[in-house]
Amino acid sequence: xxxxxxxxxxxxxxxxxxxxxxxxxxxxxxxxxxxxxxxxxxxxxxxxxxxxxxxxxxxxxxxxxxxxxxxxxxxxxxxxxxxxxxxxxxxxxxxxxxxxxxxxxxxxxxxxxxxxxxxxxxxxxxxxxxxxxxxxxxxxxxxxxxxxxxxxxxxxxxxxxxxxxxxxxxxxxxxxxxxxxxxxxxxxxxxxxxxxxxxxxxxxxxxxxxxxxxxxxxxxxxxxxxxxxxxxxxxxxxxxx
Length: 241
Prior knowledge:
This protein has about 240 residues and is an alpha+beta fold. The protein is built from five helices and twelve strands. Helix 3 packs antiparallel against helix 4. The N terminus is likely disordered.
């Protein structure tokens, strides 16, 4: 009888341990509300000291300069807090020639290289895309905090050897246009599916994807977070006498 009571006591203790222990999902943070994850990603962006990122246009090319007919499909970029960004941009002219130019945003202004001579000059006055805005409080962080509708956790994935959470939602075109600038093809009143992948441990965003109709879209991928980068202010050619 004593052995039976002892056995029942042990079973009871095991049951208590099982039902009171935190679940794997809770320990990993997946028990949080989707908006809590979005807020964490927004906070992580504002804490970034530096990063490398790519901006890829999927589907039809987007205009970098509509007046001259120059379009772009991809940009390789560097960011240094709080307000320095440099992007090597793959562009195509009206006649289909593919070239590369560099656009730099620094406190002294916005500069752009000539794709043929590689010399820098002031960027066109109507260049509304601003790489620095992506990381500013009013950029991606503000969208993640206030503008993602119907957020949901889609699961976890391994990206670059790290565990990432995948979140889905919808964002109005006018909110996204403020980031993309004149090259945007998004309609202000329309809702667009947005996907975010963020590191589970740090909250740092890894990928952000905006889906448009007809196979078009935008993809931002971040890497080399907080590694040293150098973004000097471009030197302009001496004025001709």
